[in-house]
Amino acid sequence: MTTETLELAITFPDSTGWRLLMFERVLPIALWSIAAVLANRFVNWASARVTMRIDAEFKNSDSLVRSESAKHQHAVIQVISWVAIAAIYLLAGYQIIVALGVPITALVAPATVIGAALGFGAQRVVQDLLAGFFLITERQYGFGDVVNLALTGGSTAEGTVEDVTLRVTKLRNTDGEVITVPNGQVVKATNLSKDWARAVVDIPLPTTVDLGKVNALLHTVGERAFQDPYMSTLLLDEPSVMGVESIDLDQVNMRMVARTLPGKQFEVGRNLRERIVRSLATAGISVEPLTDTVDPRTETPQGGEKAAT
Question: Where, by residue number, does the polypeptide cross the bilayer (predicted)?
């Protein structure tokens, strides 16, 4: 065999070599890649079906708020799907490396160096994953909860939980904005809708008001609110009057509180404020503090004696 013939044989292998290359290298790589993509889509489809079923059960039920178990199930499904997708791509990557004929033992040393580099460079990611794991297992909050999160650096984030994964929590605030918070940055989580909530209504009144009369009016407002067919579904018990909460120079503040279903404290608070304003207006009681008005020409408070010059 001449040199030219040998070079052609090396450059253009025979049909047997091409078949071996296809069946031992190219075909397994293509099959594992396609299988990984299909498995990823199946996991996303299955998780979406399960979450839709949970949401449908809530919408078809008579309950006004999600149960704690439903919130936890929603969060756990998101985590399971995330872990499953990561495992699928890791397995596919391993099989592709094997199909390429790369010895795994030869990758131990490079993998150690890369792992150490990632360990230093991805400390925050690892912190987020660990924080997310404990956040979900401890059921600090779940899908649909109204939370206030204190973050590192002194900032805060408040809104309704729309998604919880091992790495991030997504909130939607009252302005409709979606806030993505890494779980490792959460210093304190305040759940405003776990088990039950409390609506707090402060009523500012002038210091000259008859507190006994106001107290009786507020008790009547609480009784009527608890007897209302719609409000009774939101309230866990009758609203109670706590009395005078604080005293300022020209006004006193009375407080009424009510235990409500999770997440319904804002609606109950608005309803109670409306009822209180109407009741006080009917009784001729103003919620604005009394202030003296001064005539600039005489510098005399109206209703009083002329100021000394």
Answer: 26-43, 75-92, 98-120
State the amino acid at position 117 in one-letter form. A
Overall domain count for the chain: 3
168-172 and 178-182 strand pairing: antiparallel
Residue of 241, 246, 261, 141 lying closest to 200 (CA atoms): 241
List the one residue out of 179, 185, 275 whose CA is nearest residue 235.
275
CB 214 within 8 A of CB 276: no
Note the pLDDT of residue 110.
72
The continuous run of DSSP H or E covering 216 comes out as: helix 211-227
- The distance from CA 306 to its chain's CA centroid, rounded to whole angstroms, is 60
pTM summary value:
0.55
DSSP notation for 114-146: HHHHHHHHTHHHHHHHHHHHHHHHTTS--TT-E
Please provide the average confidence, as pLDDT, over all residues in the chain: 78
Burial 166-178 (b: 16+ CB within 10 A, else e): bbbbbbeeeeeee
From residue 78, alpha-carbon distances to 42, 174, 191, 224 in Å are 14, 24, 20, 43
Our CA angle for 285, 288, 290, nearest 5°, is 95
Residues 50 and 85 in one domain: yes
**Domain-embedded: residue 241:** yes
Token code pair at residue 63: 């309950």
Q: Are strands 251-260 and 240-247 parallel, antiparallel or unpaired?
A: antiparallel
Cα–Cα–Cα angle for 154, 74, 77, rounded to 5 degrees: 105
Query: Residue 112, Cβ neighbours under 10 Å: how many?
Result: 10
Q: Are 65 and 193 in contact (CB under 8 A)?
A: yes
Here the CATH number for the domain that contains residue 45 is 1.10.287.1260
Is the per-residue pLDDT at 305 higher than 50? no
Q: What beta strand segments (E) does the chain contain? A: 146-151, 156-164, 168-172, 178-182, 186-191, 197-206, 240-247, 251-260, 294-295, 300-301
